[in-house]
Design brief:
heterodimer; A: alpha+beta; five-stranded antiparallel sheet; four-stranded antiparallel sheet; 4 helices; 9 strands; B: alpha/beta; six-stranded parallel sheet; 16% strand; globular
Chain lengths: 164, 570
C-alpha cells in the first residue's frame, strides 16, 4: 500500500543523502520525495511517498526515526490528510483546434495555461498524484513535449499536525 | 581562552577523559599531531595501518565500555579505516573516529588525498559530522561522544578540514549537549513489562535468549539476578557470551548455527521466549518460519528498529536492558503468581536429556592437535579469566564453544561484520586498557595475516599479547562449507606459501613457538603465560580436517542440527 511519510529533519548539508541512502541501502522504494525548509529555517520538511507491506512501512518509519538528524515524522496515510502535487506540462499547440481542445481540458482539470508560444502551451496543474496522472492520460498521446512533477506534498487535516 | 582547532581537539579529548588515541599521521592532520607532541595527557598509539587503529580502538571500547578514539588522515587514511568503522557499527561499539580532511576551500576539487569521508562512511556509522567552522568544533566533538555512547551505541565520524585545525576561537569544554532530534529511550513501557511478566510466570517451557546488548549496557548483574530468580534456562548469542557465567548450570550454551544441541532444541520447543539485547540475527534464527514455533516472544531492546525486524514479537519493550530488567524484577517480586516449578522441573529434565548428547564431543585421542583441545587447555591455564579476542572463522566458533566466559567484556570478536584481521589489533586495545591482565588472540593462519603488521605496534608499545594461531593451512570455515555444500571443491581456500610464523614473530622482536604434538599443548601455553612481558606467537599445527560442529545449515530450523559427520540425528 502507498504511504505518505512527512519528516521534519535538521536543515543541514547531507540530511537528504542520509534519507536517500537509507532507502537505497535497505532496498526500500521511494516513489517521490520533496524537501524544502520550513518557517523555521533550521528545519526542513520532507514528504516521502513509498509503498510496502505493513511490516516494511513499520521498519521504514523506525529506521527514519533512528537517523540522528530526523526530529519527528508522521505517516500521513494513518489519518485524514491532504496531498497535492504540482505539475508543469508543455504540450504542442500549433493550430486553433488543438489550442481549443487543450484549453477546454485545462479548464475541466482546473489548471492554468502559464506560457503561450506559437507552437506550445505550458500548463500548471495542481492536485493529487492521481489527478495529474488522469490529466496526462486525457491529453492526446504525442502532444506532450515535456512533463515536470514536483512530487507529492502532504499535510494532515484538522488539528493533527507535525511540528516541534 | 583562544585556541586553534588542533589545540581545541586535544584539549577536548583530555577534558572528555580520553586516555588513548589510536592513529596514523598524514598531511591533513599534521597540526593535530603537532599538538599531540606537545602534551602527555592523551596517549597516542601509532599503528601500522588505519584498519588496525579502528580495531584497536574497538577492542579498547569492548573491553572497557568506554568509547574508543581513532585519528586518521584524509583520503586513504579515512578509507583504510572504513572496515574497522563498519565492524564497530555492526556490533554497536561506541567509537569516535576523527578523520582529517583537505582545506575547506579545496573540498570538492579532487585535491590530493581528498575523499568524501562523510559520504563514504555514512552507511556504516551511527552518525557523522563535517566541521565547517572552528566555532562548531568543540560542540560537534561533544555531540559525537554523546551520540556514540548513548542509546544503541555506535561509531561516529568527525571529519575536520585542515584549515579548521589552524583557525582560532574561544574554547570552553561543553559540559552538556542539546540535540532535539536525538533522545534515546531508557525506561520501558510499564504496560508491556506487565504483559511480559504475565507470560513469563505462566510459562511451562520458558527460555532466555540474550545478546550483545546486555554487555553493551552493563546489564550483566541484572541479567544474572533475573535468571537465577526465575530458574529458567539461558542461552546467549556469540556477542552475548560472558554476560551470564558460562560455567553455571542454567547456561545451556550458545545458540544458532554453531550453538549447542541443547540450546537450539530448547529454543525450538520453548513456549515463552524472552530476548534481551539481541537482534534475531540470521546466524541465530535460522529459518524464520521454523523459529520458536510454539513460543510467545518478548523482546527487550534499546533500538526500536531491532524489534520485529525479522521475527515478529508479541511483546516489544524498548529500553535499556538493566533498567527494564530491574522494573521487571520489581513486578515479579510483587506478583502473587510464581513460576510453575513442576513444569519447570520437567523442562529441565528434557533439557538435561538434550545436554546428554554431549554435542561438543571431539576426538581427544587424536595424534593430531585438535583445535578444541587447545582452547580447552587455554581456558584451564588462564583460569577462564583472560580477555580473548578472535578473528573470524572456525577458530572463532571453537573459542566461543570451548572458552567458558564467566565475565562480560572478556570475549571480543567481530560478530556482525565478521572481519578477518580484527583479532590482533583488538587485542592491542584490550591489553592497553588492562595492562595487568592476560590478553589472548585466538586466530588462524589466514586471519592473522590480514593485520599481521600490527606485530610491530605490539613491539613498540610492549604489549605482551598471547597469540593462539590455530594453523590448519586452510581458510577453515570456507573449506568446511566447500566440503559440505560444494562437493569438496576447495576453491582457493588452501593457503600455499605460508610464512614461518615463528621466524616472523622473532623478526618483529617477539617470541615464536611452534607446537605440532598434542602432548605439548599445555606446556607451550604455560611457557607463553610465564613470559609475562613478551608477546608470544603460538603456532599450533592442527588437524586440517576438523570441522565445527554442531551445525545448522543455512536456511534450516533449530531442530535440524548436524552433530558431526559420524553422528547424524534422525
Amino acid at each position: 500500500m502507498q504511504h505518505i511519510i512527512s519528516i521534519l529533519i535538521e536543515n543541514e548539508s547531507g540530511a537528504l543523502s542520509r534519507v536517500a541512502g537509507l532507502f537505497s541501502a535497505r532496498g526500500y522504494n521511494i516513489e517521490s520525495l520533496t524537501v524544502a525548509p520550513t518557517e523555521d529555517s533550521s528545519l526542513s520538511r520532507m514528504t516521502l511517498v513509498t509503498t510496502g507491506s505493513d511490516e516494511i512501512i513499520e521498519q521504514i518509519t523506525k529506521q527514519l526515526n533512528k537517523l540522528v538528524d530526523v526530529v519527528k515524522l508522521m505517516d500521513l496515510t494513518e489519518g485524514a490528510h491532504i496531498e497535492r502535487e504540482m505539475m508543469l506540462i508543455k504540450v504542442r499547440a500549433s493550430d486553433a483546434t488543438m489550442r481549443e481542445e487543450i484549453k477546454r481540458l485545462v479548464d475541466i482539470f482546473r489548471g492554468r495555461i502559464i506560457d503561450v508560444t506559437d507552437v506550445a502551451y505550458t500548463i500548471e496543474l495542481t492536485g493529487t498524484g492521481e489527478k495529474n496522472d488522469a490529466f496526462i492520460e486525457a491529453l492526446n498521446e504525442g502532444s506532450i513535449v515535456e512533463t515536470v512533477r514536483s512530487g507529492v506534498s502532504g499535510i494532515a487535516r484538522g488539528s493533527r499536525s507535525l511540528h516541534i | 581562552m583562544e585556541l586553534n582547532g588542533a589545540e581545541i581537539l586535544i584539549h577536548f579529548l583530555k577534558d572528555e577523559g580520553v586516555e588513548y588515541v589510536f592513529g596514523y599521521p598524514g598531511g591533513a592532520v599534521l597540526f593535530i599531531y603537532d599538538e599531540l607532541y606537545k602534551q602527555d595527557d592523551v596517549k597516542h598509539i601509532l599503528v601500522r595501518h588505519e584498519q588496525g587503529a579502528t580495531h584497536a580502538a574497538d577492542g579498547y571500547a569492548r573491553s572497557t565500555g568506554k568509547p574508543g578514539v581513532v585519528l586518521v588522515t584524509s583520503g586513504p587514511g579515512a578509507t583504510n579505516a572504513v572496515t574497522g568503522i563498519a565492524t564497530a557499527y555492526m556490533d554497536s561499539i561506541p567509537m569516535v573516529i576523527i578523520t582529517g580532511q583537505v582545506h575547506t576551500w579545496a573540498i570538492g576539487s579532487d585535491a590530493f588525498q581528498e575523499v568524501d569521508a562523510v559520504g563514504i562512511t555514512r552507511p556504516c556509522v551511527k552518525h557523522n559530522f563535517l566541521v565547517k567552522d572552528v566555532k562548531d568544533l568543540a560542540a560537534t566533538l561533544k555531540k559525537a561522544f554523546y551520540v556514540a555512547t548513548t542509546g544503541r551505541p555506535g561509531p561516529v565520524v568527525v571529519d575536520i578540514p585542515k584549515d579548521i585545525t589552524v583557525d582560532k576561537t574561544d574554547y570552553t569544554y561543553p559540559d552538556s549537549v542539546d540535540m532535539r532530534s536525538y533522545n534515546p529511550v531508557v525506561k520501558g513501557n510499564a504496560r508491556q513489562i506487565r504483559r511480559a511478566v504475565d507470560i513469563l510466570l505462566g510459562a511451562k517451557r520458558p527460555m532466555i535468549y540474550t545478546g550483545g546488548g546486555v554487555v553493551l549496557s552493563d546489564g550483566s548483574k541484572e541479567l544474572v539476578d533475573f535468571t537465577r530468580h526465575m530458574g529458567f534456562p539461558i542461552t546467549q548469542t556469540l556477542m552475548g557470551l560472558g554476560s551470564y557465567p558460562s560455567t553455571d548450570r542454567q547456561f545451556v550454551g550458545m545458540l544458532g548455527m554453531h550453538g549447542t544441541y541443547e540450546a537450539n532444541m530448547a529454543m525450538h520447543h520453548c513456549d515463552a521466549l524472552i530476548a534481551i539485547g539481541a537482534r534475531f540475527d540470521d546466524r541465530v534464527v535460522g529459518k524464520i518460519e521454523h523459529f520458536c514455533p510454539d513460543a510467545k516472544i518478548i523482546h527487550i531492546d534499546i533500538d526500536p528498529a531491532s524489534i520485529s525486524k525479522s521475527v515478529k514479537v508479541d511483546v516489544p519493550i524498548v529500553g535499556s536492558v538493566p533498567v527494564v530488567l530491574d522494573e521487571m524484577m520489581e513486578l515479579i517480586k510483587q506478583s502473587d503468581s510464581k513460576p510453575d516449578l513442576e513444569a519447570l522441573g520437567d523442562w529441565w529434565t528434557q533439557i538435561d536429556e538434550w545436554r546428554g548428547m554431549d554435542c561438543l564431543r571431539y576426538d581427544k585421542d587424536s595424534k593430531l592437535i585438535k583445535p578444541q583441545a587447545v582452547l580447552e587447555a587455554l581456558w584451564n591455564i588462564t583460569n577462564g579469566d583472560a580477555f580473548v579476542t578472535s578473528d573470524v572463522g572456525q577458530h572463532q566458533m571453537w573459542a566461543a564453544q570451548f572458552y567458558k566466559f564467566d565475565k562480560p567484556r572478556r570475549w571480543i570478536n567481530s560478530g556482525g561484520l565478521g572481519t578477518m584481521g580484527f583479532g590482533l589489533p583488538a587485542a592491542m586495545g584490550a591489553q592497553l586498557a588492562h595492562p595487568d591482565d592476560t590478553v589472548c588472540c585466538v586466530t588462524g593462519e589466514a586471519s592473522i595475516q590480514m593485520c599481521i603488521q600490527e606485530l610491530s605496534t605490539c613491539k613498540q608499545f610492549d604489549l605482551p599479547i598471547k597469540i593462539i594461531n590455530l594453523n590448519n593451512r586452510y581458510m577453515g570455515m570456507v573449506r568446511q562449507w566447500q566440503e559440505f555444500f560444494y562437493e569438496k571443491r576447495y576453491s582457493h581456500s588452501y593457503l600455499e606459501a605460508l610464512p614461518d610464523f615463528v621466524k616472523l614473530a622473532e623478526s618483529y622482536g617477539h617470541v615464536g613457538i611452534r607446537i605440532e604434538n598434542p602432548a605439548d599443548i599445555e606446556g607451550a601455553l604455560k611457557e607463553a603465560m610465564s613470559l609475562k612481558d613478551r608477546l608470544v606467537f603460538l603456532d599450533f599445527i592442527t588437524d586440517q580436517t576438523e570441522n565445527v560442529y554442531p551445525m545448522i545449515a543455512q536456511g534450516k530450523g533449530h531442530h535440524e542440527m548436524h552433530l558431526s559427520s559420524e553422528r547424524e540425528l534422525a
